[in-house]
């Protein structure tokens, strides 16, 4: 087990390192520069701006200095698009918001997804099954930039409880979380249904039924855990995706999270911010996948014994 | 299971937290807070380092220049940081008497030395200020800024005493107080700037909440990235009795549709903009809240005059007069814009030459004269635009008009903002769709940029004759004569037509009826100290 953990950790580190290095080069290859704006910067000042951000050296020098600062001081450098802000400050301000939104969205996804998946499997080919699978298909197909505005128009405009957008009252978290969570709920429902159908047709379930164990107990004690394995595999990357991929939802609902910075860092060519967010997200996704591997080993006796 | 148990508690907390039935603006009305949409997160709040409209909205609340914009009348200057001013006969030397009670928001007096320091800072050859050109009106400013004269005291800005600022100009400028309303002319607090760095150290923490002091009607209260910036009353402001608002909340709402929905839901007093497709809705349902006002800005298409066949003025003119501006405005933009017959929009006493008008027949003739009868043999040109949907819609309209009227093919090339700008700065384009907003109410804000070597020209066009007119105007003290010379200059520009004027801007936005003291202004530089909130019964 320890060997697997060590092996996977090493893999994650290598992947993230390659990812950040690739980003470092790619963002510098894009035409344009971080300081270009609709008012021309006088030529004699170009150099002094580059110098003030430490961007006047060769790419190699910049690369080494950046990694040195990150590894020794935990300093990701200054933002080139938000004057006077450090990248650390931006991440510290925005990540907790994205994390909170992600957690609530995930909770909503699981609360909707797992029960409807289980119900659909239990009442296979019934109206419940078709109903929840149509819902799941719709959840997968409707993108956030459609669902978000619809929720704003149908729900927020017609109630005083919800605001259209903003991040002021605790209720403001619900609509963006639902928008983010519905798509994941849909996947979870389909995966749970599939897993459940597979498990329910197995011999050990039939044995339990033959012994007269009530359906609910069979579900809870025997079926649910193995049936959720595909879902768990999906959850790690899905959680990372919810946190990292919430740009659309953050923009529509004006959520001060990190997804906005990720995209604006690309469009404004904010070198340091982009490198840091890619590093951060890389670690997050790598970490999530790593945890899923460990959780799977813990949940699946076959996998555990094989190792 | 634990989550299921915690859920009712969570829902209860949400209910308690949100049980106020009043909308956000109703609460804000009671608190005297003006809540406005402000497009995006500002790049910064240092008046010397930013160059955007959304930054200037916040800076205008925090700082005050020598003169202040009149809340109703365009071009009128009220006393600001300066209580009075006077000039010599030919408008080349100006003396500004500062407010005796003028103070920074920490109580430190605002002196003429702060102004001199500010101008030396903005012009410092090492400060990466994009807008240092705005001070080139001052004698010696350009030479110091470009490093030709290393002595900061060579700049024609001098403190006669603590409360008298003398400015010597490079030529006569009868409208100098008008220019000092622009944020590049605002003072920055010398004592705070130097506390966090040297005079030319950019991007220091002096503009952070807690550090920043300002001399305007408001001071910075709080700033959370991509969430809000809030300003509150400056207790030391010399004219605090005029200020009615207790504060202003600027929300960086990047999505204009979200912004409109927030307005309709009662979360905002004012939007930054209104998407064209929402204008008919607003006209029908909330006509009393829709604002459509003239704005000194021009949309134009740059021609790269080094590229064939755009090196021919005949071709450029054919392209210009084959665009049906009125149709574009009525069918695509829908915002009440005006067809641009020249580059400089009409304002004040300036009579812009009306040279560009839609005439497809003449356009076809010109194109034939240039060697492309019925568009035959005309190469496929690329039209560069930014990545906004609105830019794409405009570009498609131009493409169709050129195809219909001239039978030529234009390919649309959409690029991300930074790439789009860089391609123009490096002259790597054929045609580029673009806009320019005036900084002050004088034609030079639209005409200077087309002189040779100006960083914003980018057309590779230049004309000695044109620059001679600009130079002559710069040295003419008589205001009417000066404007006449500038109009002649603009005629030269439009005859050669390196830029194709499309339309003159309007601002389209939503404003709630309880906001008073807000009148249409051409520069959209509303002096916020005169704005009041008076509750009314009307709801969107």
How is the secondary structure organized here?
The complex is a heterodimer of chains A (307) and B (540).
Chain A: H1 2-29, H2 43-52, H3 59-73, H4 87-122, H5 127-141, H6 144-156, H7 174-200, H8 203-210, H9 215-227, H10 229-244, H11 247-253, H12 258-267, H13 271-299, H14 301-306
Helix pairs in contact in A: 1-13, 4-5, 4-7, 4-10, 4-13, 5-7, 6-7, 6-11, 7-9, 7-10, 7-11, 8-9, 10-13, 11-12, 12-13
Chain B: H1 2-17, H2 24-31, E1 33-37, H3 53-62, E2 67-69, E3 77-79, E4 82-87, E5 93-98, H4 112-122, H5 141-145, E6 157-161, E7 164-168, H6 176-179, H7 190-195, E8 218-224, E9 228-233, E10 247-251, H8 256-264, H9 279-285, E11 290-303, H10 313-321, H11 325-333, E12 338-339, H12 360-369, E13 381-385, H13 389-406, E14 410-414, H14 417-425, E15 431-437, H15 444-447, H16 464-474, H17 479-496, E16 499-510, E17 515-516, E18 532-533
Parallel strand pairs in B: 1-10, 13-14, 13-15
Antiparallel strand pairs in B: 2-3, 4-5, 5-7, 6-7, 8-9, 9-10, 11-15, 11-16, 12-16, 17-18
Helix pairs in contact in B: 10-12, 16-17
Model description:
The complex is a heterodimer of chains A (307) and B (540). Chain A is mainly α and 307 residues long. Chain A is built from 14 helices and no strands. Chain A has a domain at 87-264: MetI-like (MetI-like fold), CATH 1.10.3720.10. In chain A, helix 4 packs across helix 7. The model of chain A has no long low-confidence stretch (mean pLDDT 87). With 540 residues, chain B is α+β, with helices and mostly antiparallel strands. Among the domains of chain B are: 64-204, Alpha-Beta Complex (Dipeptide-binding Protein, domain 1); 295-506, Dipeptide-binding Protein, domain 3 (Roll), CATH 3.10.105.10. Chain B is 30% helix and 19% strand. Chain B has helices at 2-17, 24-31, 53-62, 112-122, 141-145, 176-179, 190-195, 256-264, 279-285, 313-321, 325-333, 360-369, 389-406, 417-425, 444-447, 464-474, 479-496; strands at residues 33-37, 67-69, 77-79, 82-87, 93-98, 157-161, 164-168, 218-224, 228-233, 247-251, 290-303, 338-339, 381-385, 410-414, 431-437, 499-510, 515-516, 532-533. Chain B has a 6-stranded mixed beta sheet with strand order 12-16-11-15-13-14. In chain B, strands 1-10-9-8 form a 4-stranded mixed beta sheet. Mean pLDDT of chain B is 91; it is low at 14-18. Chains A and B meet through helix 2, helix 4, helix 6, helix 11 and helix 12 of A and helix 1, helix 8 and helix 14 of B.
């Amino acid at each position: 087990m320890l060997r697997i953990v060590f092996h996977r950790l090493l893999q994650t580190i290598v992947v993230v390192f390659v990812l950040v290095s690739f980003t470092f080069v790619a963002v510098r290859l894009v035409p344009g520069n971080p300081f270009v704006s609709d008012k021309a910067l006088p030529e004699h000042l170009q150099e002094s701006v580059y110098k003030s951000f430490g961007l006047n050296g060769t790419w190699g020098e910049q690369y080494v200095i950046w990694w040195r600062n990150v590894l020794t001081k935990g300093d990701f450098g200054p933002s080139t698009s938000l004057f006077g802000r450090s990248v650390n400050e931006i991440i510290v301000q925005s990540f907790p918001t994205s994390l909170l939104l992600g957690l609530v969205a995930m909770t909503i996804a699981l609360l909707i997804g797992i029960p409807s998946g289980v119900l659909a499997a239990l009442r296979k080919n019934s109206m419940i099954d078709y109903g929840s699978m149509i819902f799941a298909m719709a959840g997968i197909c409707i993108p956030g930039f459609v669902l978000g505005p619809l929720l704003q128009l149908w729900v927020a405009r017609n109630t005083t409880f919800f605001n259209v957008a903003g991040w002021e009252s605790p209720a403001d978290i619900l609509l963006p979380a639902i928008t983010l969570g519905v798509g994941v709920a849909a996947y979870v429902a389909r995966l749970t249904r599939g897993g459940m159908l597979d498990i329910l047709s197995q011999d050990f379930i039939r044995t339990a039924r033959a012994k007269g164990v009530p359906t609910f107990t069979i579900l809870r004690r025997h079926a649910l855990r193995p049936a959720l394995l595909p879902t768990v595999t999906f959850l790690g990357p899905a959680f990372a995706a919810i946190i990292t991929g919430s740009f659309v939802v953050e923009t529509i609902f004006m959520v001060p999270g990190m997804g906005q910075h990720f995209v604006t860092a690309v469009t404004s060519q904010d070198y340091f911010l982009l490198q840091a967010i890619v590093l951060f997200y890389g670690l997050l996704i790598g970490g999530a996948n790593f945890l899923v591997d460990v959780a799977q080993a813990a949940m699946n006796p076959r996998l555990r014994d094989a190792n | 299971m634990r989550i299921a148990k915690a859920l009712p508690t969570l829902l209860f907390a949400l209910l308690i937290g949100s049980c106020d039935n009043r909308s956000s603006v109703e609460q804000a009305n009671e608190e005297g807070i003006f809540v406005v949409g402000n497009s995006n997160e500002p790049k910064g709040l240092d008046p010397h380092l930013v160059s955007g409209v959304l930054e200037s909205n916040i800076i205008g609340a925090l700082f005050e220049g020598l003169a202040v914009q009149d809340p109703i009348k365009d071009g009128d200057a009220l006393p600001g940081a300066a209580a009075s001013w006077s000039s010599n006969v030919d408008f080349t030397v100006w003396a500004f008497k500062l407010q005796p009670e003028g103070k920074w928001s920490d109580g430190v007096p605002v002196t003429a030395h702060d102004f001199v320091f500010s101008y030396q800072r903005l012009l410092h050859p090492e400060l990466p200020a994009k807008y240092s050109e705005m001070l080139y009106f001052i004698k010696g400013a350009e030479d110091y800024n470009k490093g030709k004269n290393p002595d900061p005291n060579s700049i024609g800005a001098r403190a006669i005493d603590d409360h008298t600022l003398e400015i010597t100009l490079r030529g006569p400028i009868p409208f100098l107080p008008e220019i000092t309303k622009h944020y590049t002319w605002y003072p920055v607090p010398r004592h705070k700037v130097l506390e966090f760095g040297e005079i030319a150290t950019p991007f220091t923490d002096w503009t952070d909440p807690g550090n920043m002091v300002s001399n305007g009607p408001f001071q910075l209260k709080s700033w959370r990235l991509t969430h809000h910036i809030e300003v509150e009353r400056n207790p030391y402001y010399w004219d605090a009795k005029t200020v009615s608002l207790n504060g202003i909340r600027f929300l960086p709402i990047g999505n204009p549709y979200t912004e409109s929905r927030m307005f309709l839901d009662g979360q905002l007093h004012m939007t930054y903009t209104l998407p064209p497709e929402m204008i008919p809705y607003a006209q029908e349902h909330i006509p009393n809240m829709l604002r459509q006002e003239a704005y000194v800005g021009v949309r134009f298409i740059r021609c790269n005059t080094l590229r064939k066949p755009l090196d021919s003025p005949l071709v450029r003119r054919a392209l210009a007069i084959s665009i049906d501006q009125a149709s574009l405005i009525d069918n695509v933009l829908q915002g009440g814009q005006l067809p641009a017959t020249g580059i400089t929009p009409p304002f004040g006493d300036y009579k812009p030459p009306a040279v560009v008008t839609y005439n497809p027949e003449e356009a076809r003739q010109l194109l034939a004269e240039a060697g492309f009868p019925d568009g035959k043999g005309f190469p496929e040109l690329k039209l560069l635009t930014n990545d906004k949907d609105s830019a794409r819609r405009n570009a498609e309209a131009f493409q169709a008009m050129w195809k219909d009227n001239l039978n030529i093919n234009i390919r649309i090339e959409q690029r991300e903002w930074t790439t789009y700008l860089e391609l123009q700065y490096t002259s790597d384009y054929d045609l580029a769709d673009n806009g320019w907003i005036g900084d002050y109410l004088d034609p030079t804000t639209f005409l200077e940029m087309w002189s040779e070597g100006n960083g914003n020209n980018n057309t590779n066009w230049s004309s000695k004759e044109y620059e001679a007119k600009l130079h002559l105007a710069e040295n003419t003290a008589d205001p009417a004569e000066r404007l006449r010379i500038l109009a002649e200059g603009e005629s030269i520009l439009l005859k050669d037509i390196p830029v194709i004027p499309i339309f003159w801007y309007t601002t389209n936005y939503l404003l709630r009826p309880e906001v008073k003291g807000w009148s249409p202004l051409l520069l959209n530089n509303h002096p916020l100290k005169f704005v009041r909130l008076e509750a009314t019964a009307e709801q969107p």
